[in-house]
Amino acid sequence: MASVKRTDPLTFIAALDSLGYTRTNDIAPIENLQKNADIEPLAMLDPLQDIEWLCLKQHCHALSHIEDTINTKRNLGSAQKNILRYTVGYLKNGPSIVNRLLSKCSNADTEDYMKSAFKGNAMGCAKIRNSLAAEIDLSLCNCSFDDASASYPNPLLHLAKRLLDSSHSCDLN
Question: Which DSSP letter does residue 39 get?
Fold first, then answer.
């Protein structure tokens, strides 16, 4: 049997709209999931335009793996969703980035979307490695944060480490 190419929900809905499809009230498009869940609407920022996200995914193998999974399988497990929320959800534009990435997943539920940014401490590297041990090459998950902070290791320390660098920027090439 031939494999059918999957498309993201927004493109699919746009195609239906262009064909004159009329939605009923009981079926809501993906862009309205936030409204249906009583979530304050967030700008759907393109993750590829956020410097913090680009820096994180470049330096954190686990987050890069999760984004690759979203882009190839269009499906995330609950552990992957939690890692995304409890790391990226602490960024300035974190909720918007998380929501945009989750909107690409066919199994994203309304409760998966974020209402606002988290405060406090992000999920630690050890917990992330344990959650993804069967999925990623753990030898690639060996970050060193010695100079960045006395805090426990977590992916957000990549940003702090970059701020300590004299260049104050990430090499995004």
Answer: P
